[in-house]
Amino acid sequence: RKMASFLLKSVLIVVAVFSISSMAQASDPDILSDFIVPVGSAIDGNLFTFNGTRAIFGSVIQKFSVTKVGKAEFPVLDGQSVSLAVLQFPGGGVNPPHTHPRAAELLFVVKGSLEVGFVDTTNKLYTQTLQVGDLFVFPKGLVHYQYNSNWNESATAVSGFGSANAGTVSLPTTLFATGIDDQILA
User: Are residues 93 and 153 in the same domain?
Assistant: First the structure.
């Protein structure tokens, strides 16, 4: 009886350890310093400054546009577990259904209005109409979209992510532009 109890406790401990270790791998790694300095970079204020979004303000938007600011574009984000994207929608513009496998998304509308929605794992659709100043969260890994239903006004939103590399899987591209046979998709 003692042996069975010991075995049960041992199995539970092993399961708990593997559960914790797999959870730790599902997010950005913790770093052992305040920040990671990219090779060849000087450590000054410029390291922590990104000006790649300056040009997007004041420009006329003809089609949906995303300006990403993740660790690929701003290397000092490596290890910080944050990134963002500026989404610009012309009138009638859409960010088609997609997912972010490594992070939740917090969308903040700064201009215009957006129709947004996501589908949970029970296939329930949650939708909302957002105005300037509204925020909406898209849970990690769930299919979601944004749409500017106002054909007379552009819209802009800023999305924050809980990862330096949230990843994006665009469903239309993934399903219809990768050579998957139509019979499989039917």
Answer: yes
Q: Which residue has the tokens 């350890």?
A: 17
The pLDDT profile of the chain, 186 residues, written as one tens digit per residue, is 554 454 455 444 555 555 544 444 556 778 878 898 889 899 999 999 999 999 888 778 899 999 999 999 999 999 999 999 999 999 999 999 999 999 999 999 999 999 999 999 999 999 999 999 999 999 999 999 999 999 999 999 999 999 999 999 999 888 888 888 888 887
Judge whether 105 is annotated as a binding position: yes
CATH number at residue 169: 2.60.120.10
83-89 vs 155-161, strand pairing mode:
antiparallel
Side-chain-side CA neighbours of residue 150 (13 Å)? 13
100 is in an annotated binding site: yes
148 is in an annotated binding site: no
Is 51 assigned a ligand-binding role in the annotation? Answer: no
95 carries a ligand binding annotation: yes
